[in-house]
Amino acid sequence: MLKELVRNDGERFLKFPKLDAIIADKSAWRTDEEFGREMLAGVNPVFISRLQEFPPASKLDPKGYGNQNSSIRTEGTVFNPAEHGVEGSVWQLAKAYTAVNDSGYHQLISHWLNTHAVIEPFVIATNRQLSVLHPINRVLHPHFRDAMSINALARQIFTNADGNVFFCLQELGFH
């Protein structure tokens, strides 16, 4: 990685080799096979599941959160694989929405919530209860060293009322 940071060969920073499939066909990323491969090899392959109830219903209290039930209905909601024309474009958009939602889930839930947010109470408890000379503190310190400052910065940038996550949700009409 250090070699990548101090490149002097004229190549772009972090330029990775192209996949063999892309070298053979520049449009290979659009195929259903490549989409399936990316979803199964991606960051959340275990979260791929079949919808258990249709339309999906929210269990949130409507008094506190408003109506969260889906307005999706059976007619006009099934996207079938297609390669050409309007149907092909709609199918590509359906795959794009799936990829974007998968990425968003990974960033907000899998990465932030299940990693950064979960570790915070342990960092606080370790700093409050264990001496800096305690063997467990010494083992944990390299892992906890920057956790609180990273989390504070993430909250400041992403998850506060004016942050990126809430801005995007407001733009989509969620208040």
Task: Describe this entry's structure for a reader.
It is built from eight helices and no strands. It is mostly helical. Helix 5 (85-129) crosses helix 7 (147-159). The mean pLDDT is 81. It has one domain. The protein is flat. It has helices spanning 2-5, 20-24, 32-41, 62-65, 85-129, 135-144, 147-159, 164-171.
Largest sheet: none
Report the order of strands and helices: HHHHHHHH
Backbone shape: flat
- Enumerate how many helices there are, as a single number: 8
- Average of pLDDT: 81
Distance between the termini: 42 Å
Give the total of beta strands: 0
The class by helix and strand makeup works out as mainly alpha
Q: Give the percentage of residues in beta strands.
A: under 5%
Number of domains: 1
Residue windows where pLDDT falls under 50 for at least 5 positions = none
Helix content: 55-70%
The radius of gyration computed from the alpha-carbon positions, rounded to a whole number of angstroms, is 22 Å
Topology of this protein?
Elements: H1 2-5, H2 20-24, H3 32-41, H4 62-65, H5 85-129, H6 135-144, H7 147-159, H8 164-171
Helix pairs in contact: 5-7
